[in-house]
Amino acid sequence: MRVLLAEYACHHEPALASEGEAMVRILSDSFTRIGYEVVMPVPGTDFADELRRLAPSCEEALVIAPDHLLARYTKIIEDLSRNIGCNSLAVAVCANKKRTASTLKAHGIDVPAEVTSGKRVIKEISGCGAVHMRFRDEEPEEGEFGQEFIDGEHLSVSMVGSRVVGEVCLYYTGEGPMVLSLNRQNIRIDPDGTFHYDGGETPATHPRAEEVISVARKAATVLGCQGYTGVDLVVSPDRIVVVDVNPRPTDSIVGIAAIMEEEIADIIVKASYGRAPEKVTLKGKARFGKDGSVTVSDRD
């Protein structure tokens, strides 16, 4: 069995390269351990051309790329192989943060209010993580918009969804996404208002953990996410707010894989056939950096 594992940022997006390399390493090693031959695009070549060249010879394919590019590349592998990540339509919706927010709000999920004046969080409509995010009183640039600032804890929920579209008649189970972990994100804001993401820790404990996970699962379900999905939330004393939905592997996979007894590749593949496990076993705690570093503690 061959799997195409294609990560864009490693060789095409220097600011995100270290994160991409860490995710590829974790996934490649895991797929190899469960018996797959892993093939990847050749560095320095056109990414889309490489997908078209490699995908037809692979039984499964997974692509990871920045939000604004992911739908395009996902559609290529959908047409030429068997995509085990999120479907391209859901990816396109999630890539547009304004559309994502309006869709979630229509389904009763709390999201940041859009703000058009005064001090607000300015982010790219199709941005990736905290890149170019800032909390300032200034006009958004082209392709950006403003949202209210929410003071609270930054958490994320990592999960793997089964088939929702594509081969749905064969593999749809009706079950919601299976949860891998609740994570804490280290978000830092400079004096000038610039946001920075500095990794995180998993698993996280929180008095409202069940509520947070329930909201995250609902958000992923509403948006039609399947495969590895990360939902970012801010939790304040009176609100649980979804701030981003990532329909692809995220940095958390580095920490989770370090302490999870199961193979992450096996879970992703099985979920795509409607056979995801009910739960996973995490032993210990992991702190992970955006550079791919990970420190494990309390393993025993």
Q: Keyphrases for this structure?
A:
27% strand, three-stranded parallel beta sheet, D-amino Acid Aminotransferase, Chain A, domain 1, 300 residues, seven-stranded antiparallel beta sheet, alpha+beta
Structure, described:
This protein is an alpha+beta fold. The protein has a single domain (2-113, 147-297), classed as D-amino Acid Aminotransferase, Chain A, domain 1 (2-Layer Sandwich). The protein is 32% helix and 27% strand. The protein has 10 helices and 13 strands. It has helices at residues 9-12, 17-33, 47-54, 67-80, 88-95, 97-106, 168-171, 209-222, 252-259, 264-272; strands at 2-7, 37-39, 60-64, 120-124, 134-136, 144-147, 153-161, 178-189, 195-202, 227-236, 239-246, 285-288, 294-297. A 7-stranded antiparallel sheet has the order 11-10-7-8-9-12-13, with helices on both faces. Strands 2-1-3 form a 3-stranded parallel sheet, with helices on both faces. A 3-stranded antiparallel sheet has the order 5-4-6, with no helix packed on it. α4 packs antiparallel against α5. The longest helix has 17 residues, at 17-33. It is globular and about 55 Å long.
Q: What is the gist of this entry?
A:
The chain is of the alpha+beta class and 300 residues long. It is 32% helix and 27% strand. It has helices at 9-12, 17-33, 47-54, 67-80, 88-95, 97-106, 168-171, 209-222, 252-259, 264-272; strands at residues 2-7, 37-39, 60-64, 120-124, 134-136, 144-147, 153-161, 178-189, 195-202, 227-236, 239-246, 285-288, 294-297.
Walk me through the topology.
Layout: E1 2-7, H1 9-12, H2 17-33, E2 37-39, H3 47-54, E3 60-64, H4 67-80, H5 88-95, H6 97-106, E4 120-124, E5 134-136, E6 144-147, E7 153-161, H7 168-171, E8 178-189, E9 195-202, H8 209-222, E10 227-236, E11 239-246, H9 252-259, H10 264-272, E12 285-288, E13 294-297
Parallel strand pairs: 1-2, 1-3
Antiparallel strand pairs: 4-5, 4-6, 7-8, 7-10, 8-9, 9-12, 10-11, 12-13
Helix pairs in contact: 4-5
